[in-house]
């Protein structure tokens, strides 16, 4: 089911760069790196833990297809895959989405730790 006034439920097919029966991918409107993709469920689910197994598989399939497409298009050297669940964890759009973020050599001075560095304690 779609949810009224949810910006991701309002996404149109012509914005999808990849899709299958249960999931779709589109470019993040404010990319943190070149090629930042978001993968969503077509049905409205508030967060990742609400997905059923078929949706998880559909998302996984688009993660793989997205990786392949991004490697061909932009030749990144690595990826971060991230899911924010809940406002406290930083989720701002309450429709399940997975960030697929390509990473490039030298994009930060010291990449060690990746997403582990999101909390200040990791910087000590
Ligand atoms: P999060 O903070 O994990 O909820 O991520 C929400 C993401 O959605 C952010 O990276 C935003 O840049 C992105 N975003 C917000 N609105 C749109 C939109 N209309 N189309 C594409 N991406 C969007
Ligand atoms: Zn929605």
Describe the fold and architecture.
- The protein is an alpha+beta fold.
- It has a single domain, classed as HIT family, subunit A, CATH 3.30.428.10.
- The chain is 18% helix and 19% strand.
- A five-stranded antiparallel beta sheet has the order 1-2-3-5-4, with helices on one face.
- The chain starts with 17 loop residues before the first strand and ends in a 21-residue tail after the last strand.
- Adenosine monophosphate binds next to loops.
Strand residue content = 15-25%
Q: How many domain units?
A: 1
Query: How much helicity do the residues have?
Result: 10-25%
Order of helices and strands: EEEHEE
* Shape summary: globular
Largest sheet strand order: 1-2-3-5-4
Instruction: Indicate the low-confidence ranges by residue numbers.
Output: none
User: What is the fold named in CATH at topology level?
Assistant: HIT family, subunit A
Q: How large is the radius of gyration?
A: 15 Å
The secondary structure category is alpha+beta
By DSSP (H or I, 4+ residues per run), the number of helices equals 1
Please outline the helices and strands:
Layout lengths: L17 E2 L3 E5 L9 E5 L11 H22 L3 E5 L14 E7 L21
Antiparallel strand pairs: 1-2, 2-3, 3-5, 4-5
């Amino acid at each position: 089911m779609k949810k009224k006034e949810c910006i991701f439920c309002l996404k149109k097919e012509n914005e999808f760069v990849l899709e299958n029966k249960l999931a779709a991918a589109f470019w993040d409107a404010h990319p943190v790196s070149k090629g930042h993709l978001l993968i969503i469920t077509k049905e409205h689910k508030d967060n990742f833990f609400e997905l059923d197994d078929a949706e998880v598989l559909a998302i996984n399939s688009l993660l793989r297809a997205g990786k392949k497409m991004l490697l061909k298009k932009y030749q990144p050297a690595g990826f971060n895959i991230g899911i924010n669940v809940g406002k406290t964890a930083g989720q701002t759009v309450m429709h399940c989405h997975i960030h697929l973020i390509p990473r490039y050599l030298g994009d930060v001075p010291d990449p060690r730790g990746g997403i582990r560095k999101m909390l200040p304690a990791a910087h000590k």
